[in-house]
């Protein structure tokens, strides 16, 4: 199993990060993708990945971080990101995307501009994209109708849209990952999409420390909870847990270009 989206560098893991990792490996995980959300993350994440090959990282700017960055620095920050990606060590570009309807200091026009530059860097460096989209799917769809997707692919992280949106993203060649909400009793719309998406386009994530699955809902999530999410996905789809675990892991290995070491036999 591979957790395709886990903020392991979050401060909530500072007291026991090593123990969290030990529990993840004991739970059967073979890899974890840690998405960078801002420039302060990038170098530490690359070093984390160098120390532990089962940890792979994405480098990007989360739209919610834009208010903390002066707009006049966007060019310099994106050039720095380009330089880091040129050095290698990153498995993806992102987390990046759109977050709406708007944020102080991050109007939609700026968000779209920064996202276009992420997509261009992904195309340039042959890397997939970790895409965040919250309440701005119409704007993202408009962008993706005009902007070529990276050949390496695009992963809709913690997908929460409905079936019709999913059909558009499928047609564009996107993949989808699902997190803890697939186990929540009130979940509806994303579950309909989960049933409609082909298994070969699916992956699993925890989005830890957020969105903990049942039975841990309301507490800090961690990568070792991924089996609960895969069990939830299998239950929704009416498929064997073992098959969903096998296929989502295979999908993640292929999507991230075999970045993770093969599990020991």
What descriptors fit this protein?
265 residues, alpha/beta, TIM Barrel, 14% strand
Describe the structure.
With 265 residues, the protein is an alpha/beta fold. The chain has a single domain (2-256), classed as TIM Barrel (Alpha-Beta Barrel). It is 41% helix and 14% strand. The chain has helices spanning 17-26, 39-51, 74-87, 108-125, 137-146, 163-171, 189-196, 226-237, 241-255; strands spanning 2-3, 31-35, 55-59, 92-99, 129-134, 154-156, 175-178, 202-204. Helix 3 packs parallel to helix 4 (108-125) and helix 8 (226-237) packs across helix 9. The protein is globular. The protein starts with a strand and ends in a 10-residue tail after the last helix. The mean pLDDT is 96. One of its GO terms (molecular function) is hydrolase activity, acting on ester bonds. A divalent metal cation 1 binds at residues 5, 7, 95, 207.
Which H/E pattern describes the elements?
A: EHEHEHEHEHEHEHEHH
Q: Low-confidence stretches at least 5 residues in length (pLDDT < 50)?
A: none
Question: Can you tell me the number of structural domains?
Answer: 1
Looking at the structure, the CATH topology is TIM Barrel
Structural class: alpha/beta
Distance between the termini: 14 Å
Shape: globular
**Quick one: CATH superfamily?**
Metal-dependent hydrolases
Family: Belongs to the metallo-dependent hydrolases superfamily. TatD-type hydrolase family.
GO molecular function, one term: hydrolase activity, acting on ester bonds
Binding site for a divalent metal cation 1: 5, 7, 95, 207
Organism: Pseudomyxococcus hansupus
């Amino acid at each position: 199993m591979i957790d395709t989206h886990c903020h392991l560098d979050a401060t909530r893991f500072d007291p026991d990060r090593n123990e969290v990792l030990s529990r993840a490996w004991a739970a059967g995980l073979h890899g974890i993708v840690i998405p960078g959300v801002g420039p302060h993350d990038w170098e530490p994440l690359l070093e984390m990945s160098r120390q532990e090959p089962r940890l792979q990282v994405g480098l990007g700017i989360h739209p919610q971080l834009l208010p903390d960055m002066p707009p006049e620095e966007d060019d310099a920050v994106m050039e720095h990101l380009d330089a880091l990606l040129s050095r290698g060590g990153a498995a993806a570009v992102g987390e990046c995307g759109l977050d709406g309807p708007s944020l102080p200091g991050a109007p939609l026009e700026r968000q779209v501009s920064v996202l276009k530059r992420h997509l261009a860097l992904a195309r340039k460096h042959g890397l997939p994209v970790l895409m965040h989209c919250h309440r701005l799917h119409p704007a993202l769809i408009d962008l993706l109708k005009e902007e070529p997707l990276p050949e390496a692919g695009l992963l809709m992280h913690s997908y929460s849209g409905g079936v019709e949106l999913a059909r558009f993203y499928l047609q564009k060649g996107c993949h989808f990952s699902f997190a803890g909400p697939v186990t929540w009793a009130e979940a509806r719309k994303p579950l309909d999409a989960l049933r409609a998406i082909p298994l070969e386009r699916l992956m699993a994530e925890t989005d830890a420390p957020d969105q903990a699955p049942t039975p841990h809902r309301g507490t800090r999530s961690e990568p070792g909870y991924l089996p609960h999410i895969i069990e939830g996905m299998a239950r929704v789809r009416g498929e064997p847990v073992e098959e969903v675990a096998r296929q989502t892991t295979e999908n993640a290995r292929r999507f991230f270009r075999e970045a993770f070491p093969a599990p020991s036999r």
